[in-house]
Amino acid sequence: MQEHQGNDRAGSDIAFVACGPHQPAQRRALAQTSGRAARLSKGPARVVDVHAHCVFPAAMKLLGIEYPGRTPLHLANVAQVTADAITGRLAAMDAQGVDLELLSVNPLWYRADPDLSRQVIDLQNEALAEVVARHPDRFAALACVALQHPELAAEQLEHGMRTLGLKGALLGGCVDGRELSDPSFHPFWAKAEELGAFIFIHPQGVPEINQRLAGSGGLWNVIGNPLDTTIALSQLIFQGTLDRFPGLTICAAHGGGYLPAYAARSDAGIRTFPDSYTVPLKKAPTAYLRDLYYDSLVFTPEALRHLAAEVGADRIMLGTDHPYPWTDRAVAHILETPGLSDADVASMLGDLAARLLGLGAAP
Question: Who has greater pLDDT, 168 or 10?
């Protein structure tokens, strides 16, 4: 593996990681496994990964965050990245059978003041738009927003979508201790609903319990991240946010955390402890699971089969968490899961994402 580093420039720098020769990803995707892939009656128009990350070191520098200088998370200011460097990132996608990545940046700026937030968000969103403009057939992107300042975040979302062509936004599972269901965020949710934004909820862990997650095993991530998503989705349901904004398009990382696997307890809790049910809902808590979307990053065919049984196969999209090395078989994972129809597979691999993101016809 060889890393190609772009030149520094105020605004952003990104490094692309080369993982082999460039190949057409669509053909690679349907050749990744024998048998099922070859027998698909109709594959996806393109394979779309809705869960892929990058980092802009210049933005991290503004935030005072020390970030490793050479990491596959970096993308570079594409205007100064060589063709070989860009090919490196594309080759990494091709190796996984991915035609198009939906790029996003994890929010490390939720404690920044409004002025610093504007600098960081403008830098990142303009750089993301530049990456997409250079390779619109291979990349789309989600805006960064300073959700700790909800009205500013709503403005940033609108600018990102209407002016820069971004597809929505990535949000953390909570915002410096405030749940996404907090009424202070209603202006942002209203704007997201108005714009038809694709909102990707990505966990940031649960630092309140880090002491219990200390020691061997990286439990702050392995347990903490799915737990953060579980709490965030449950709060959006039980505090009535999804009733207030029924037109939202929300996709949850890592298969929705633990919620889909044990959602029936939410319904049973209302029956068992009715006094705890203080916000009237329009339907049973489990019914809201089929109003949300989920990525496919759940690691075993049985886990994906069960997720589809709980939320519907038509609510799941391919997610790799690239370039974190959780998996290099995300496409094969979907192809090999029992009980999915060819239409289910095509939807998960890219057709659903293309429709929700408004990607248009495949090139």
Answer: 168
